[in-house]
Write a structure and sequence with these properties.
29% of the residues lie in helices and 25% in strands. The chain is an alpha/beta fold. The strands form three sheets. Strands 4, 14, 15, 16, 17, 18, 19, 20 and 21 form a nine-stranded mixed β-sheet that branches. An eight-stranded parallel β-barrel has the order 5-6-7-8-9-11-12-13, surrounded by five helices. The termini are far apart. Bound molecules: ligand LLP.
């Protein structure tokens, strides 16, 4: 959805240089077509298997993005009351919402029950007791799945790997049967599912397949023990290509590789993809402020910083950085850095980038997931606007913050 025509970078049919001039920089820009295509790739790949594609709201929680997905029929995976509020504001059907997360508060559980969400993925026995007690008070009987930890190494960044027993997530798969047994006496809950999620930005399918086999075996044995298991939630985690030339698994091929075993299980399958739906659908547009040299080292100082996109600083994540207008000049090797007062404020280090000059625009690629949502006001920088492109049109779906926004809610 992002491609060059006559040396100018476009998002769908919108020239990004024009957009940058009108909206200003830094700005996040998303392609609606790309988001919808990625969502539909999941939805269609399941074919004849009953399924729910519950988009992981944490990846990009802008109302317009949620609304786009809700209208396309998506369900939602939420991890907080705030995310529930957002999906309801966006017009989502609460019956398609699954509530995950290791630290649900009583207020959040109450809000979720009052809203009539679909199901809970529970991560501890104490949480099961809480949800049971609150469901009793409301006279409802929600379905739940225990999030099991299958002890599979997702081979991804340690901060976003979740499926090993050393992580805080889930309940060890070996202990799960005992938890379900003890939950039999929680009469306000229906033990009708099993869930897992082993990590994010997973590029090899084998860990996912291993986890799926383990949870399928658990679901079958729970079924034999008399539990009405109908739901299998496989979480999210499919990786995307951040490096040019890198090959990430394709969504359709990924689901196809699971298709036969899932179909044979006769379960309703939920997936919770975030990054693979919105990541490649977004960029962060930024403007070059200065070029400078410190000794032999060259810097391109831009107007986007770690407060706008923290992934490079936090995970050493690689995002391609490409010019919005290509010029026939030899490229340079430089650090691309922002204005924030930290040495850790960089978007790229020792990177071969275009020979840009002050005033030129750059696009930081694959920034649609875990971009804006992780942004902050550090250094009292107003947060960037978000723009949604649809064909030849675009609209600002979140305006740029103002200085007044920065102090809203504060008192002297
Ligand atoms: N379901 C659960 C229970 C999760 O914890 C997550 C992500 C997802 C679904 C969605 O995973 P995805 O399909 O997006 O990989 N901030 C990090 C990523 C954190 C992911 C946390 N959990 C980053 O920027 O890479």
């Amino acid at each position: 959805m992002f491609s060059y025509s006559d040396s100018d970078l476009y998002c769908e049919n919108v020239a990004l240089a024009d957009l940058a001039t009108r909206v200003g920089t830094p700005a996040f820009v998303y392609s609606a077509q790309s988001i919808l295509e990625n969502y539909r790739a999941y939805d269609e790949a399941f074919q004849d298997i009953p399924h729910n594609v519950c988009y992981a709201v944490k990846a990009n929680s802008s109302l317009a993005v949620l609304g786009l997905l809700a209208r396309a029929g998506a369900g939602f995976d939420i991890v907080s009351g705030g995310e529930l509020y957002r999906v309801l504001e966006a017009g989502a059907d609460p019956a398609k919402v699954v509530f995950s997360g290791v630290g649900k508060t009583p207020d959040e559980v109450e809000y979720a029950l009052a809203s009539g969400i679909h199901r809970f993925n529970c991560e501890s026995e104490a949480e099961l007791l809480l949800v049971d007690a609150m469901a009793a008070r409301r006279g409802v009987r929600p379905g739940f799945a225990v999030r099991v930890n299958p002890d599979v190494d997702a081979n991804t960044h340690p901060y976003i790997s979740t499926g090993l027993s050393e992580h805080k997530f889930g309940i060890a798969i070996s202990e799960a049967p005992g938890v379900y047994e003890r939950a039999r006496k929680l009469v306000n809950l229906c033990a009708d599912g099993v869930s897992c999620h082993i990590g994010s930005q997973i590029l090899e399918l084998s860990p996912i397949l291993e986890a799926v086999d383990k949870v399928l075996a658990l679901a079958a044995s729970l079924g034999n023990a008399g539990f009405p298991i109908r739901h299998l939630d496989l979480g999210g985690g499919l990786g995307v290509a951040y490096h040019s030339g890198q090959k990430a698994p394709e969504i359709r091929a990924f689901i196809a590789s699971l298709h036969d075993r899932l179909r044979a299980s006769r379960l309703c399958v939920t997936v919770e993809p975030g990054r693979s739906i919105v990541g490649p659908a977004g960029i962060l547009l930024t403007r070059v402020l200065y070029r400078k040299k410190n000794g032999p080292k060259e810097f391109v100082v831009v107007d986007a910083a770690m407060n706008d996109l923290i992934r490079p600083s936090l995970y050493r994540a690689h995002h391609e950085i490409i010019p919005v207008r290509q010029r026939p000049l030899p490229s340079i090797t430089a650090d691309v850095v922002g204005p924030v007062c930290e040495s850790g404020d960089f978007l790229a280090r020792d990177r071969t980038v275009a020979n840009v000059m002050p005033g030129d625009y750059l696009a930081v690629c694959t920034a649609g997931a875990y971009g804006f949502v992780l942004s902050s006001n550090y250094n009292s920088r107003p947060r960037a606007p978000e723009v949604l492109v649809e064909g030849g049109a675009y609209r600002v779906i979140r305006r740029r913050e103002t200085f007044e926004d920065l102090v809203r809610g504060e008192t002297l």
